[in-house]
Design brief:
alpha+beta; single chain; binds flavin-adenine dinucleotide; two-stranded antiparallel ribbon
């Protein structure tokens, strides 16, 4: 099964649309230039298309296996992981002082998409490793940093995130794992964690767990949690490996998708000997852990995008070769048409593409805001950081929900073959579903949005967003090609604004917000998507005109324009970008007004239903 990427759109986002120079001219990225970034993407793509993609099918069909307390990963995973580690793809954006490449997040998005799209199970391994290493870099003592960071960023050891327990999933305040301080300053950790991604495997000689646990006498609930780093194998002062650290794997889950990613039950300290080291301060563990959770949430959004994009590309390739029926423009007496000629198949393909482009624009723009927050200071930094925090739950939930729907639409294009294992569509659909569940379910993301994110900085980030989207709509309203789309965006902004101003004033506002958090997040996702796609379409239109100018093509001569689009990959790309924005604005954006009607009705039937 070959991975079909969307390299062209990834490069459009990075090199043509985002203001990359604003990032590159500043502080930590001064040494980086566009040519370097283009080469970085080339190199990453080779690995993604090569060994990483090559073992994706085996990862699914054979999956991770558990025998005698050990987890074995499928054939090809060790080689692909080795290629990712030796190429620096575990930590392209990490600080060079700890062995990272020091690249901006804007390019990190493209790298993550290539790897996640080629092999989601393997992508998760490195996502968690860099997240756990970053926790140690931020909150660890110099000694812990020296012991772990470089070895993890280089891929010599991997990392995990150990939150979930049988009685504590969404409700992290219910965690019971214990950590007792010892005379030497370390802690003995004991408890059982479940659903731990890559909690055990045979890729590396050590695995470094970031564990949330409770110290004796700590308050109940989330405020009593502390964060620890617990290696699978103890590490000697000289950095060499010591004996086992009493962390055992009790089994792995048998699940719908991501079969190559072992989802482990881990037992810490069954024999009283799991040594852990405190990160940051006691009872600040959840606040510290949010650094890793937020990064992972955004990356899970990238996963939704990656699965959707790969599924869409596969459907597009299939539609270009499958013959069935006769299209409306087929010549009389001609044989069967390619299914790509059928209007219903074309509708589905463009809708898939439009949502994929909207998701990619959202996660890329979020990454660019992270870079801007990194290179600015004071009020300007706060503004970019506010947008990052607002966009984090939206990226996670909107891209995973709509990413899953896109994989379903893509599967449909294959007809019966899509339902078989002969084609990759069904694997993309199964692999994608988890993205709406882990890292905080999408219901929990929506509560974070309407609770904390709407209130932060006095509500400014969400107001900034409405203003930016409204201004973009206003500036394109008179355009002959994009005017109708701009008006759809203006309507959507108005509908969202009405919900956000009216609902909180209702007598039963707290209930209405809890009941409608998910549709509110969906409204925001669509408005951001529509706003960013309109910007991109405006740019694509200009670029298409410039290309016509260069090639001497009259924009008012449809035949000549079509000939250019048939012969030039760029001309076709810009044309499709404009069409995707138009389609999204007419098929996606009206959902915002539909949600508004439902929400403003004040209907609360779910609370009166008898379940
Ligand atoms: C394949 C896989 C990999 C995973 N990897 C990891 C990992 O590496 N590390 C880790 O720590 N965990 C991991 N998890 C656990 C995952 O994060 C949890 O499953 C998830 O957070 C949900 O917890 P739960 O399963 O207990 O569901 P519950 O919390 O029981 O939720 C059940 C349902 O109730 C809803 N719900 C719960 N509370 C509320 C509320 N307050 N308001 C509204 N709705 C609510 C949820 O949205 C959900 O729909 C993984 C899970 C899976 C399946």
């Amino acid at each position: 099964m070959k991975y079909l990427d969307d390299d062209r759109d990834i490069r459009f986002n990075l090199f043509e649309w985002l203001d990359l120079d604003a990032v590159l001219k500043a502080g930590p990225y001064e040494e980086v230039d566009r040519d370097q970034l283009a080469m970085v993407l080339d190199e990453c793509l080779k690995v993604a298309r090569g060994s990483v993609s090559a073992c994706n099918e085996a990862g699914d069909r054979v999956g991770a296996r558990f025998e005698d307390g050990k987890v074995q990963l499928p054939e090809g995973f060790a080689e692909a992981y080795g290629d990712l580690a030796s190429g620096g793809w575990i930590s392209p954006t990490a600080d060079p002082a700890f062995g990272g490449m020091g690249l901006p997040e804007s390019v990190g998005t493209g790298i993550s998409e290539f790897i996640m799209g080629a092999n989601t199970a393997l992508g998760l391994e490195i996502l968690l490793t860099r997240g756990a290493a970053h926790l140690i870099e931020t909150f660890g003592s110099d000694e812990l940093k020296g012991t772990f960071c470089e070895r993890m960023y280089s891929g010599e050891w991997t990392g995990t995130m150990c939150l979930t327990e049988a009685g504590a999933g969404s409700d992290l305040g219910a965690l019971t794992t214990k950590a007792v301080r010892q005379d030497d300053g370390s802690y003995l950790v004991s408890g059982e964690k479940i659903f731990i991604t890559s909690g055990n495997h045979d890729l590396t000689p050590n695995i470094i767990h970031a564990v949330l646990a409770r110290t004796p006498g700590a308050p109940a609930g989330p405020k009593g949690l502390s964060l620890f780093v617990v290696p699978k194998v103890r590490v000697n002062p000289d950095g060499s490996l010591g004996g086992p650290n009493d962390v055992t794997c009790a089994g792995i889950e048998h699940k719908l998708g991501i079969h190559g990613s072992p989802t482990c039950s881990l037992v810490f300290g069954a024999n009283g000997g799991s040594q852990g080291f405190l990160l940051g301060q006691e009872e600040q563990g959840l606040a510290h852990m949010f650094q890793m959770m937020n990064a992972a949430r955004w990356e899970v959004g990238v996963q939704g995008l990656s699965n959707a994009s790969a599924a869409h590309q596969a459907a597009l390739a299939y539609a270009r070769e499958r013959l069935q029926g006769r299209g409306p423009n087929a010549d009389k007496g001609a044989g069967q048409s390619l299914i790509i000629e059928h209007p219903d198949v074309r509708r589905s393909l463009l809708l898939q593409s439009a949502y994929v482009q909207a998701m990619r624009a959202l996660v890329s723009y979020t990454a660019w805001c992270m870079d801007m927050a990194h290179v600015t200071q004071g009020a300007e930094r706060d503004r970019w950081q506010g947008l990052v925090e607002l966009f984090t739950p939206i990226s996670k939930a909107w891209c995973s929900d709509w990413g899953f729907r896109v994989t379903e639409w893509a599967l449909q294009v294959f007809g019966g073959y899509g339902y078989t294992m002969d084609y990759p569509a069904e694997q993309y659909l199964r692999d994608c579903k988890i993205a709406s569940i882990y890292e905080g379910t999408n219901g929990i993301q929506a509560l974070d949005l309407v609770g904390r994110k709407f209130r932060m900085q006095g509500g400014r980030p969400v107001q900034d967003l409405l203003k930016l989207a409204g201004e973009a709509a206003g500036s394109w309203t008179g355009d002959p090609v994009l005017g109708a789309s701009a008006r759809q965006l203006a309507e959507a902004v108005k509908a969202l604004d009405a919900v956000l101003t009216q609902l909180p004033g209702r007598e039963n506002a707290p209930l209405l917000m809890l009941l409608n958090a998910v549709p509110i997040l969906d409204m925001l996702g669509h408005v951001v998507g529509g706003y960013l796609l309109l910007q991109q379409a405006g740019l694509a239109k200009q670029k298409a005109l410039a290309l016509m100018g260069e090639r001497g093509v009259d924009p008012n001569d449809p035949q000549a324009v079509r000939a250019l689009q048939a012969g030039s990959r760029d001309a076709a790309f810009y044309q499709n970008k404009v069409q995707a924005a138009i389609h999204f604005s007419h098929r996606g954006l009206p959902l915002v007004a539909a949600h508004a009607v439902a929400l403003l009705s004040g209907e609360t039937a779910p609370m009166d239903a008898v379940f």
